[in-house]
Specification:
This protein is mainly beta. Helices cover 4% and strands 59% of the residues.
Length: 356
Protein backbone atom coordinates (compact mmCIF):
# COMPACT_ATOMS: atom_id res chain seq x y z
CA UNK A 1 0.00 0.00 0.00
CA UNK A 2 1.34 3.41 -0.95
CA UNK A 3 2.29 5.51 2.08
CA UNK A 4 0.27 8.69 2.39
CA UNK A 5 2.37 11.80 1.86
CA UNK A 6 2.59 14.09 4.88
CA UNK A 7 1.46 17.69 4.64
CA UNK A 8 3.66 20.66 5.51
CA UNK A 9 2.17 21.15 8.99
CA UNK A 10 2.57 17.45 9.82
CA UNK A 11 6.21 17.49 8.72
CA UNK A 12 6.94 20.57 10.86
CA UNK A 13 5.26 19.01 13.91
CA UNK A 14 7.16 15.74 13.46
CA UNK A 15 10.42 17.64 12.95
CA UNK A 16 10.21 19.39 16.32
CA UNK A 17 8.78 16.30 18.03
CA UNK A 18 11.88 14.30 17.08
CA UNK A 19 14.51 17.07 17.28
CA UNK A 20 15.81 15.91 20.68
CA UNK A 21 16.33 12.29 19.61
CA UNK A 22 19.99 11.28 19.30
CA UNK A 23 20.81 10.29 15.72
CA UNK A 24 23.78 7.96 15.81
CA UNK A 25 23.33 7.28 12.10
CA UNK A 26 24.29 10.87 11.27
CA UNK A 27 27.86 12.19 11.27
CA UNK A 28 26.47 15.66 11.94
CA UNK A 29 23.01 16.05 13.45
CA UNK A 30 21.68 19.57 12.99
CA UNK A 31 18.30 21.11 13.72
CA UNK A 32 16.85 24.55 13.07
CA UNK A 33 14.54 26.77 15.05
CA UNK A 34 13.41 30.37 14.84
CA UNK A 35 10.89 32.65 16.42
CA UNK A 36 9.93 36.10 17.64
CA UNK A 37 11.11 37.66 20.90
CA UNK A 38 10.97 40.89 22.82
CA UNK A 39 13.29 42.65 25.27
CA UNK A 40 13.52 46.16 26.67
CA UNK A 41 16.86 46.66 24.94
CA UNK A 42 16.11 45.19 21.51
CA UNK A 43 12.31 45.54 21.22
CA UNK A 44 10.55 43.07 18.91
CA UNK A 45 12.84 40.76 17.02
CA UNK A 46 13.29 37.52 15.15
CA UNK A 47 15.91 34.99 16.13
CA UNK A 48 17.14 32.11 13.97
CA UNK A 49 19.25 29.25 15.32
CA UNK A 50 20.93 26.13 13.97
CA UNK A 51 22.11 23.75 16.72
CA UNK A 52 24.23 20.73 15.87
CA UNK A 53 25.92 17.84 17.64
CA UNK A 54 28.60 15.64 16.14
CA UNK A 55 31.43 13.24 16.93
CA UNK A 56 35.00 14.11 15.99
CA UNK A 57 35.69 10.36 15.74
CA UNK A 58 32.73 8.10 15.06
CA UNK A 59 34.87 5.02 15.84
CA UNK A 60 35.54 6.31 19.36
CA UNK A 61 32.47 5.77 21.53
CA UNK A 62 34.23 7.15 24.64
CA UNK A 63 34.55 10.68 23.28
CA UNK A 64 31.47 12.79 24.20
CA UNK A 65 29.63 14.54 21.40
CA UNK A 66 30.77 17.99 20.33
CA UNK A 67 28.31 20.84 19.85
CA UNK A 68 27.97 23.96 17.72
CA UNK A 69 25.38 26.73 17.49
CA UNK A 70 25.02 29.20 14.63
CA UNK A 71 22.65 32.08 15.20
CA UNK A 72 21.32 35.28 13.71
CA UNK A 73 19.08 37.86 15.36
CA UNK A 74 17.35 41.01 14.10
CA UNK A 75 14.98 43.45 15.78
CA UNK A 76 12.86 46.53 15.16
CA UNK A 77 15.25 48.70 17.20
CA UNK A 78 17.90 48.31 14.49
CA UNK A 79 19.80 45.62 16.38
CA UNK A 80 21.34 42.70 14.51
CA UNK A 81 23.77 39.98 15.50
CA UNK A 82 25.33 36.95 13.84
CA UNK A 83 27.65 34.44 15.45
CA UNK A 84 28.86 30.91 16.05
CA UNK A 85 29.91 29.17 19.25
CA UNK A 86 30.70 25.63 20.26
CA UNK A 87 32.98 23.00 21.77
CA UNK A 88 34.89 20.36 19.83
CA UNK A 89 36.10 17.32 21.81
CA UNK A 90 38.85 14.93 20.78
CA UNK A 91 40.58 11.74 21.97
CA UNK A 92 38.14 10.67 24.73
CA UNK A 93 37.81 14.34 25.77
CA UNK A 94 41.54 14.69 26.50
CA UNK A 95 41.59 17.76 24.26
CA UNK A 96 38.92 20.41 23.71
CA UNK A 97 38.62 23.52 21.58
CA UNK A 98 36.09 26.10 22.76
CA UNK A 99 35.27 28.94 20.39
CA UNK A 100 32.92 31.90 20.21
CA UNK A 101 32.80 34.59 17.56
CA UNK A 102 30.16 37.17 16.69
CA UNK A 103 29.43 40.58 15.27
CA UNK A 104 26.63 42.80 16.48
CA UNK A 105 25.28 46.30 15.99
CA UNK A 106 22.97 47.59 18.67
CA UNK A 107 21.33 50.92 19.49
CA UNK A 108 22.19 51.00 23.17
CA UNK A 109 22.31 53.10 26.32
CA UNK A 110 25.19 54.13 28.55
CA UNK A 111 25.14 55.42 32.11
CA UNK A 112 28.86 55.83 32.72
CA UNK A 113 31.46 53.80 34.60
CA UNK A 114 30.94 52.67 38.19
CA UNK A 115 27.99 51.86 40.43
CA UNK A 116 27.06 55.46 41.25
CA UNK A 117 26.93 56.45 37.58
CA UNK A 118 24.96 53.32 36.69
CA UNK A 119 22.27 53.86 39.30
CA UNK A 120 21.72 57.48 38.25
CA UNK A 121 18.79 57.51 35.78
CA UNK A 122 19.75 61.02 34.61
CA UNK A 123 22.94 59.62 33.06
CA UNK A 124 21.02 57.53 30.53
CA UNK A 125 22.55 58.30 27.11
CA UNK A 126 21.73 56.85 23.70
CA UNK A 127 24.51 55.58 21.45
CA UNK A 128 25.16 52.85 18.89
CA UNK A 129 27.42 50.01 20.00
CA UNK A 130 29.31 48.05 17.35
CA UNK A 131 31.21 45.01 18.60
CA UNK A 132 32.99 42.04 17.07
CA UNK A 133 34.82 39.37 19.04
CA UNK A 134 36.71 36.11 18.56
CA UNK A 135 37.68 33.80 21.43
CA UNK A 136 39.47 30.46 21.08
CA UNK A 137 40.54 28.23 23.99
CA UNK A 138 42.64 25.08 23.46
CA UNK A 139 42.36 22.85 26.53
CA UNK A 140 44.44 19.77 27.36
CA UNK A 141 43.68 17.06 29.94
CA UNK A 142 46.82 16.20 31.98
CA UNK A 143 44.74 14.29 34.54
CA UNK A 144 41.11 13.30 34.98
CA UNK A 145 38.69 16.29 34.93
CA UNK A 146 41.53 18.86 34.93
CA UNK A 147 42.02 20.96 31.80
CA UNK A 148 44.49 23.72 31.03
CA UNK A 149 45.66 25.53 27.94
CA UNK A 150 46.22 28.78 26.06
CA UNK A 151 43.61 31.35 25.11
CA UNK A 152 43.41 33.82 22.25
CA UNK A 153 41.04 36.79 22.13
CA UNK A 154 40.50 39.59 19.64
CA UNK A 155 37.79 42.24 19.81
CA UNK A 156 36.68 45.44 18.15
CA UNK A 157 34.47 47.96 19.93
CA UNK A 158 33.06 51.21 18.56
CA UNK A 159 30.63 53.60 20.17
CA UNK A 160 28.79 56.17 18.04
CA UNK A 161 27.40 59.02 20.14
CA UNK A 162 24.28 60.96 19.23
CA UNK A 163 25.12 63.73 21.72
CA UNK A 164 28.87 64.34 21.80
CA UNK A 165 28.44 66.61 24.83
CA UNK A 166 27.85 63.41 26.84
CA UNK A 167 31.33 61.99 26.08
CA UNK A 168 32.36 62.79 29.66
CA UNK A 169 30.45 59.66 30.71
CA UNK A 170 33.09 57.67 28.79
CA UNK A 171 35.82 59.60 30.67
CA UNK A 172 36.74 61.07 27.24
CA UNK A 173 38.29 57.76 26.17
CA UNK A 174 38.65 56.68 22.55
CA UNK A 175 35.26 55.53 21.29
CA UNK A 176 36.86 52.92 19.04
CA UNK A 177 39.38 50.30 20.16
CA UNK A 178 40.96 47.11 18.83
CA UNK A 179 41.97 44.70 21.59
CA UNK A 180 44.26 41.68 21.28
CA UNK A 181 44.78 39.32 24.18
CA UNK A 182 46.49 36.07 25.11
CA UNK A 183 46.06 34.09 28.26
CA UNK A 184 45.94 30.83 30.16
CA UNK A 185 42.91 28.89 31.37
CA UNK A 186 42.73 26.20 34.06
CA UNK A 187 39.50 24.26 34.56
CA UNK A 188 38.39 21.44 36.86
CA UNK A 189 35.20 20.07 35.34
CA UNK A 190 33.11 17.08 36.48
CA UNK A 191 29.80 18.15 34.88
CA UNK A 192 27.79 15.35 33.30
CA UNK A 193 27.35 17.54 30.20
CA UNK A 194 28.32 21.06 29.16
CA UNK A 195 25.04 22.50 27.92
CA UNK A 196 22.47 21.44 30.55
CA UNK A 197 24.39 20.01 33.52
CA UNK A 198 22.54 18.10 36.23
CA UNK A 199 25.48 17.05 38.42
CA UNK A 200 29.12 17.91 39.04
CA UNK A 201 31.25 21.00 39.54
CA UNK A 202 33.02 23.47 37.26
CA UNK A 203 35.94 25.52 38.59
CA UNK A 204 37.52 27.79 36.00
CA UNK A 205 40.28 30.41 36.18
CA UNK A 206 41.15 32.59 33.18
CA UNK A 207 44.10 34.98 33.14
CA UNK A 208 44.29 37.33 30.13
CA UNK A 209 46.97 39.82 29.12
CA UNK A 210 46.67 42.71 26.62
CA UNK A 211 50.09 44.27 26.12
CA UNK A 212 50.97 47.36 24.09
CA UNK A 213 53.54 45.30 22.19
CA UNK A 214 50.58 43.32 20.78
CA UNK A 215 49.15 46.46 19.16
CA UNK A 216 46.79 47.53 21.95
CA UNK A 217 46.31 51.25 22.56
CA UNK A 218 45.33 50.41 26.14
CA UNK A 219 47.50 48.01 28.12
CA UNK A 220 45.71 45.95 30.76
CA UNK A 221 45.10 42.44 32.06
CA UNK A 222 42.19 40.57 33.61
CA UNK A 223 41.42 37.67 35.94
CA UNK A 224 38.14 35.77 35.71
CA UNK A 225 36.96 33.08 38.13
CA UNK A 226 33.91 30.81 37.89
CA UNK A 227 32.83 28.30 40.55
CA UNK A 228 29.66 26.33 39.74
CA UNK A 229 27.99 23.34 41.46
CA UNK A 230 25.11 21.15 40.28
CA UNK A 231 23.12 18.61 42.29
CA UNK A 232 19.93 16.63 41.73
CA UNK A 233 17.46 17.21 44.57
CA UNK A 234 14.53 15.01 43.54
CA UNK A 235 13.11 13.54 40.35
CA UNK A 236 13.95 15.75 37.35
CA UNK A 237 15.03 18.64 39.61
CA UNK A 238 18.48 20.24 39.67
CA UNK A 239 19.93 22.86 41.99
CA UNK A 240 22.59 25.01 40.27
CA UNK A 241 24.84 27.47 42.10
CA UNK A 242 27.41 29.79 40.52
CA UNK A 243 29.88 32.38 41.77
CA UNK A 244 31.50 34.54 39.09
CA UNK A 245 33.98 37.39 39.28
CA UNK A 246 36.05 39.33 36.77
CA UNK A 247 38.69 41.87 37.77
CA UNK A 248 40.75 43.98 35.36
CA UNK A 249 44.01 45.79 36.04
CA UNK A 250 45.72 48.65 34.25
CA UNK A 251 44.19 50.93 31.62
CA UNK A 252 41.07 48.93 30.70
CA UNK A 253 39.09 50.44 27.76
CA UNK A 254 35.42 51.19 28.40
CA UNK A 255 34.12 48.64 25.90
CA UNK A 256 35.46 45.57 27.70
CA UNK A 257 35.20 46.57 31.32
CA UNK A 258 33.68 43.97 33.62
CA UNK A 259 29.91 44.32 33.43
CA UNK A 260 26.62 42.69 34.32
CA UNK A 261 23.25 42.46 32.67
CA UNK A 262 24.00 39.97 29.91
CA UNK A 263 22.06 36.79 29.17
CA UNK A 264 24.33 34.69 31.39
CA UNK A 265 24.91 36.73 34.56
CA UNK A 266 22.51 39.02 36.42
CA UNK A 267 19.66 38.52 33.95
CA UNK A 268 17.22 41.38 34.39
CA UNK A 269 19.62 44.31 34.13
CA UNK A 270 20.10 46.34 30.98
CA UNK A 271 23.22 45.00 29.31
CA UNK A 272 26.23 47.05 30.38
CA UNK A 273 24.34 49.52 32.57
CA UNK A 274 26.63 48.61 35.47
CA UNK A 275 30.28 48.33 34.49
CA UNK A 276 33.62 48.96 36.18
CA UNK A 277 37.09 47.46 36.47
CA UNK A 278 35.69 44.67 38.64
CA UNK A 279 32.45 42.69 38.91
CA UNK A 280 31.24 39.76 41.00
CA UNK A 281 27.92 37.96 41.22
CA UNK A 282 26.31 34.91 42.81
CA UNK A 283 23.25 33.02 41.53
CA UNK A 284 21.21 30.09 42.86
CA UNK A 285 18.85 28.48 40.35
CA UNK A 286 16.28 25.69 40.70
CA UNK A 287 15.55 23.76 37.49
CA UNK A 288 12.56 21.42 37.24
CA UNK A 289 11.36 19.36 34.29
CA UNK A 290 7.56 19.42 34.48
CA UNK A 291 6.30 17.58 31.39
CA UNK A 292 8.23 15.61 28.79
CA UNK A 293 10.56 18.19 27.15
CA UNK A 294 9.22 21.21 29.05
CA UNK A 295 10.81 22.63 32.20
CA UNK A 296 10.74 25.69 34.41
CA UNK A 297 13.40 27.51 36.44
CA UNK A 298 13.51 30.08 39.21
CA UNK A 299 16.61 31.92 40.38
CA UNK A 300 17.84 34.55 42.79
CA UNK A 301 21.16 36.25 43.37
CA UNK A 302 23.19 39.40 43.95
CA UNK A 303 25.99 41.22 42.16
CA UNK A 304 28.21 44.28 42.34
CA UNK A 305 30.62 46.33 40.24
CA UNK A 306 33.64 48.07 41.79
CA UNK A 307 36.85 49.90 40.78
CA UNK A 308 39.10 47.69 42.98
CA UNK A 309 38.67 44.87 45.46
CA UNK A 310 39.07 47.02 48.58
CA UNK A 311 36.18 49.20 47.32
CA UNK A 312 33.59 46.39 47.52
CA UNK A 313 30.66 47.73 49.55
CA UNK A 314 27.71 45.68 50.80
CA UNK A 315 25.47 48.75 50.33
CA UNK A 316 26.16 48.65 46.57
CA UNK A 317 24.89 45.08 46.12
CA UNK A 318 22.31 44.72 43.34
CA UNK A 319 19.56 42.08 43.65
CA UNK A 320 18.59 39.75 40.82
CA UNK A 321 15.79 37.19 40.53
CA UNK A 322 13.53 35.70 37.90
CA UNK A 323 11.69 32.78 36.36
CA UNK A 324 12.04 30.97 33.06
CA UNK A 325 10.63 28.37 30.70
CA UNK A 326 12.70 25.61 29.10
CA UNK A 327 12.07 23.45 26.04
CA UNK A 328 14.50 20.67 25.15
CA UNK A 329 15.21 21.38 21.51
CA UNK A 330 17.86 18.66 21.21
CA UNK A 331 19.26 16.19 23.74
CA UNK A 332 20.71 18.37 26.56
CA UNK A 333 20.25 21.50 24.43
CA UNK A 334 17.52 23.75 25.85
CA UNK A 335 15.87 26.78 24.34
CA UNK A 336 15.29 29.18 27.24
CA UNK A 337 12.92 32.05 27.86
CA UNK A 338 13.89 34.02 30.98
CA UNK A 339 12.18 36.96 32.64
CA UNK A 340 14.67 38.62 34.99
CA UNK A 341 14.19 41.40 37.51
CA UNK A 342 16.73 43.77 39.03
CA UNK A 343 16.74 47.03 40.94
CA UNK A 344 14.03 49.17 39.28
CA UNK A 345 14.24 47.31 35.98
CA UNK A 346 13.52 44.01 34.22
CA UNK A 347 14.51 42.20 31.05
CA UNK A 348 13.38 39.30 28.87
CA UNK A 349 15.95 36.84 27.46
CA UNK A 350 15.55 34.32 24.64
CA UNK A 351 18.63 32.15 24.17
CA UNK A 352 20.10 28.66 23.71
CA UNK A 353 21.56 26.48 26.50
CA UNK A 354 21.44 27.20 30.22
CA UNK A 355 22.75 30.48 31.62
CA UNK A 356 25.50 28.50 33.40
Amino acid sequence: MQQKKQGLISRVVNYFANANQERHDKAFDISFIGGPHYSSEKKFGLGLLAAGVYSTNRNDSLTPLSNVSIYADFSTSGFYSIGIRGTSRFNQDRFRIDYDTYFESMPSKFWGIGYHNGINDKNETDYKNLMSELQIDALFLPMQNLYFGPMLEMSYVKGVLKDKDRSYLWNNEDMRTFNYGIGLMVTFDTRDNLTAPKSGVNLSLKQRYYGKWMGNSYAFSSTELVAAWYKGLWKDCTMALQYHTMITYGNTPWGILASMGVSRNMRGYYEGRYRDKGEMDFTAELRQRVYKRIGVVAWGGVGEVFPRLNAVNIHDLLPNYGVGLRWEFKKNVNVRFDMGFGKNQSSFVFNINEAF
